Structures are given as C-alpha cells and as structure tokens.
Amino acid sequence: xxxxxxxxxxxxxxxxxxxxxxxxxxxxxxxxxxxxxxxxxxxxxxxxxxxxxxxxxxxxxxxxxxxxxxxxxxxxxxxxxxxxxxxxxxxxxxxxxxxxxxxxxxxxxxxxxxxxxxxxxxxxxxxxxxxxxxxxxxxxxxxxxxxxxxxxxxxxxxxxxxxxxxxxxxxxxxxxxxxxxxxxxxxxxxxxxxxxxxxxxxxxxxxxxxxxxxxxxxxxxxxxxxxxxxxxxxxxxxxxxxxxxxxxxxxxxxxxxxxxxxxxxxxxxxxxxxxxxxxxxxxxxxxxxxxxxxxxxxxxxxxxxxxxxxxxxxxxxxxxxxxxxxxxxxxxxxxxxxxxxxxxxxxxxxxxxxxxxxxxxxxxxxxxxxxxxxxxxxxxxxxxxxxxxxxxxxxxxxxxxxxxxxxxxxxxxxxxxxxxxxxxxxxxxxxxxxxxxxxxxxxxxxxxxxxxxxxxxxxxxxxxxxxxxxxxxxxxxxxxxxxxxxxxxxxxxxxxxxxxxxxxxxxxxxxxxxxxxxxxxxxxxxxxxxxxxxxxxxxxxxxxxxxxxxxxxx
Length: 554
Ligand SMILES: Cc1cc2nc3c(=O)[nH]c(=O)nc-3n(C[C@H](O)[C@H](O)[C@H](O)COP(=O)(O)OP(=O)(O)OC[C@H]3O[C@@H](n4cnc5c(N)ncnc54)[C@H](O)[C@@H]3O)c2cc1C
Fold this sequence. Notes:
The protein has helices spanning 13-27, 39-51, 70-80, 95-104, 118-121, 123-135, 153-164, 178-187, 210-217, 237-248, 283-296, 380-389, 411-418, 532-553; strands at residues 5-9, 32-36, 56-62, 85-90, 109-112, 144-148, 169-173, 196-198, 204-206, 227-233, 253-256, 300-302, 307-313, 316-321, 326-334, 339-340, 356-358, 372-376, 395-399, 423-426, 429-435, 442-447, 453-457, 460-463, 467-468, 518-520. The protein has 554 residues and is α/β, with parallel strands linked by helices.
C-alpha cells in the first residue's frame, strides 16, 4: 500500500523548504511528504492523487498565500479528502482568521510560525493529528474501480470480465455509494458515460469496450512468437489441462482464449465431483490454480483473443485471430467447449444484464440479497446456481420443463435442493415473457400441462438452458456433426474408410479430427462425456497423441 501523504503548501520557498525538511525527518519513514508552492497547483495534484486512490493523512497550508489563502485551499482540498486532518500555518497577525476557520472549514489545528524547535512546537501537534487520523483510517483499495449503475448491462459485463480474469476490482454503485459519486466528480466524466473504469495509476476510461479494458490492463492479446509446437484454442478445463501437460513435456505452447480462462467451469459456484477436492472447489479457484500452473511451465496465454480461422500450409497449421494476426504451429488442439443457448422470449434480450443473466456470474449474487429469483433449467449447472443464490435470496424458484429433476441432474444436487427450504421447483413450466422498465421486474410462467399463465414479481431471472458448440469458424475444414460438434478418431471412419481428404497412411488418432495434426478435446468433441474431469482427461490425452503425431513427422 502507498504511504499516506502529508501535504504542505506555502508560497514562501524558504518556509516551504524548512517545513518539508522537518516533516520528512520525523515522519518520512511512515508518510510521504509532498509540498506545493500554491493552493492552485496543490489542488490539481490532490485530484490526481485521489484518482490513484492514495490516502492523504494531513494538509498543512500557510494561511497567507496570494492566489488562494490557506483556508480557501483547505476548503477545496477536503472535498477530495473529507477525512484528512487540516492544519493552518499562521503568523501572529492571522490568528483571528485561523480561529474563524476552525468553524468554517473545521480545521483541526493552527500552528504559529516560526515553529522552532520542531520537537517542541511542531511534532507534538502533528503526532496527535496523525494518531487521530490513523484511528479511523481504513486502508484503501488499490485495484481497478468500476463506477456504474446497478442495472447497467455494460457494468455487469465489465465486472464479469474483470472477475473471470482475476483482476482485483471494487464495484462502486453510483446510485447508492457516496464514494462513487465523489470519484465520478473527480474524473470529470459525465453520468452519461458510465460505466467509468478507474485504474490504479489514476487514469480512467469512459464506457469502454472489453478490448479497451484488456489493453489498458496489459492483458496479453498478441503472441510473442510467430510459430509454436502446439496451439490450444480455448482455456476451459480441457484446454488448460492440455496446455499444462504440453508445456511440462517441453512443447512450446500457446493458449488462446476468447473471454477468460476457466470456460464454463469458471462459472460454477462449487464443483463437487472433481477428484481430490472432497469438499468441492469453485470453478474460478480451479481456473486460477490451473492458470498459475500453466504459466509456471511457460505456457503463453492470449486472452481475450479469439480464433477465427485455420489454414493448412504443408506441415504447418496456421491460426487466424480476431485482430487479423496469423500464428503457425506444428499441431493444433481445439478445446472450445460449448456456448450458452439463447432463449427466444419477449422482453428478455432487452433486460439481459439488468436482472436477466445467462449462466450468471457469482458476483451478482450479493445484489439479489432478499430478492425473489427464478432459475430456468434443470441440469447440474442450474442446480448449483439455485443452491448458491439461495444463500442470498429470499426465495429461489427453479422452472423446469421436465416432470422431474433426476433425468438431468446428479443425485447429490437433487438431494441438496430438496433439503433447502427456500428453493422451490416448478415442473412442466417455462418462462414466456419478461418485463421491466430498466431491469427485470416480472416474469410470466407457463404451466405446460394446463396451459395456465401466471405473472410473478422477479428480482432476477437466471438462465441455464443448455449449450451448443460454436464451431462455424472451422466449417469446411474439419468434419462436424449436425449440431456442430467436431468428429474425431474412430467416429470419422466410414465402413473402414478414412475421411475424405485424409492425407496420411494411418487412421486418425482417437482425438484427431479429419485433418491430421488438428486435435479436439472436451465438450466440443462429438460424443464426449462432458464435464470437468473428462475435459481434463481428454486435454491430457490429446497431448500424448500430439507427441505421437509429431514423432511421426520427425
Ligand atoms: C454453471 C456450470 C456449472 C458446472 N458444474 C459442473 C460440475 O460441477 N461438474 C462437472 O463435471 N461439470 C460441470 N459443468 C460442466 C463443465 O464446466 C464443462 O463440461 C467443462 O467446462 C467443459 O470444459 P471444456 O474445456 O471442454 O470447455 P469450456 O469449459 O466450455 O471452455 C471452452 C473455452 O473455449 C473458449 N472459446 C470458445 N471459442 C473460442 C474461440 N473461437 N477462440 C478462443 N477461445 C474460444 C471459451 O470462451 C471457453 O473459455 C458446469 C458447467 C456450468 C456452466
């Protein structure tokens, strides 16, 4: 944490030098002493300090300054730092002004010039002021600050992005948080430009895109080298596992991720069926650990960065990225998982991010404390969300199209849901309308058996309606099934014949697609088991097959 600041302002250079010297000698080890030769220049610097979220403990200003008196300076400075202690440096003749200022700007003390010896006439007073300040000081937050409206989809997207990329950040709701209002005024940005993102260095962006935030944070989106042994596309469990095993085996490895490491699993509040974690672990913990492990082995991670196409150039596979960059590799692994299925319900799209969420970020749970939450879906992901949100909400209601949960949900989750008092399950039901002015207010539920419709107040609607692979960018290159899953290994063989265009004198490996050297792992694979464990297993197995493939090339 940066040292708290003691700020001293005086237009007389000799006095300023002397007071600065005395303060630094006594407090320099615990405080940063900053000086300015006028109130005007000091105020500009105070504003910059505020944007960087650095704490100020004490302002010490000379009363008699030509452009702006000490009292005037203190009056303005405390708008930025209302909790800082304020002291005036006065000549005997200014005593009356100083006494008046005790009432008008609530100065905490006035000091007479000269203050020699400082041990007697300066340090005692300053010690008291600093002790007082310390006793009510809460260490400041040092990461990124997001100022926005609670119901703004843009704010929600940025918080989700920061959270999933493990960027420490503080959410400041401009409607309810005084600090948010104050910080917004300090930036000078209009309310219409929210969300405003203030970075640790004091700079800020108004209503930025995710790519702009990523650039500003220095997240890596450009590859360091033009060519790698293995490029892995997708940093869910399958891609992360592959990257770790590949780099650990000495392959020069690049991992490309469109959103944030963790994939679908990164949205899981508690994975309870992953080996070695008897009490479960959250998806974001799993992702954080995996990313650390990958980096330790030297994996280069590009995120956010999207793969848009692949072409074959002799033995090389060349990947095209969203920014037009091309990177070559000896082998390519597709581990792009599956993406959320969107619901076509009137009113829903308009409120997406404002109380309506697909696979809601866990960070939203706190916003719905004591609310009534509806969850669409009956699979494990919906069950986990119901359990997690029930810790905050007054009531959680699951809307399930089927007649029971057991067909789609693991037994352990079904049991926990049945035992949770504030979770109700409505079978044979689906949501047919969502309404609200600027956030979700009511939803209409259809009883699919009787045809009856019911409109109910809803603080939030969370959708877990299944997922589909997004593999269009590979169309025409590798074989896909009717839903878009990538076909591999023995599933490519038709009556003992290898796939059309197959160029080598061997059958495809188990996780190899219809193009030699392009592999697939995890949920995106045709007939994969789906899930974290199988994704991790396939990622590891894919690396073993990549070695075999590369061995044959050598
Ligand atoms: C809320 C929730 C809870 C779950 N709980 C459990 C559980 O408890 N136990 C369990 O076993 N399973 C659980 N699952 C399922 C599990 O998370 C998935 O089966 C698993 O994550 C699949 O891993 P994957 O690596 O194949 O793909 P994904 O996790 O889907 O990851 C694929 C990654 O590829 C990226 N990507 C996609 N296209 C591109 C592109 N063109 N360029 C770059 N990157 C791209 C995506 O952004 C994503 O990060 C849960 C899923 C959800 C949503």
